[in-house]
Amino acid sequence: MFKSVNTFKELLGTPFAGGVNALCWARALPGDYAEVVAKLGPGEGIVALDEERLRGLRLEVEGARAVDQMLEDLRLLRDAGRDPVLNIIYGYPRDEAGGPVATDVFSFHADSAPVEADTWLCTYHGPASEGLRNEQALRKVDEPKIRAELLKLYGGPADATFTEWLSENHYDLHHAPLPGAQPYSFGQFNLWRITCAWPGSPVPPCVHRAPATGADSPARLLLIS
Prior knowledge:
Layout: E1 2-5, H1 8-13, E2 22-25, H2 33-40, E3 46-49, H3 51-55, H4 61-79, E4 85-89, E5 118-125, E6 130-132, E7 137-139, H5 144-154, H6 160-168, E8 175-177, E9 184-185, E10 191-195, E11 207-209, E12 220-224
Parallel strand pairs: 1-2
Antiparallel strand pairs: 2-10, 3-4, 4-12, 5-10, 5-12, 6-9, 6-11, 7-8
Helix pairs in contact: 2-4
């Protein structure tokens, strides 16, 4: 489940415990982010944006305010020891392998790390990410039909090596909504800190996904760390 906080300091310092695996600092930010996207122009895939490119855009006052806000968020996270990236996302690669479990970002999934880690997200423009409460999610590898297909693909017994194979291919990180599940939107401008799957984590990882988008969807401005 997620919990709301009121400041960046609280977002950074609140421990994940008691089933809370996502923290949200809800904000209403100034600026014209659509103008920033328009001035960046068309593109493909995921493009990282640096301060030099953003400052080089010829923007109106509100567009410049949007740039100031995004750069301030980058500064906050860097000062906190994170390594954030600001991207303009025209489209994500799709998993076109046709296997039993799609492993692209459009699938509900958990991030993972070998040590304690979290993920930070903020959408400034375009459709926002979505979360799924853990009690409303089922790991796809635990669904009998999918598990049987994975075992056939693996070509061996359901032993410890099979479990390792699932992890190596990230199949064990992907989830399906249970009947009646109600995903929640991360919303625009809100800064989120969510848990990853790491050994010894006191809470389950936050299940989330990139929004379903098409060729006519607006580009996303996304901060991620």
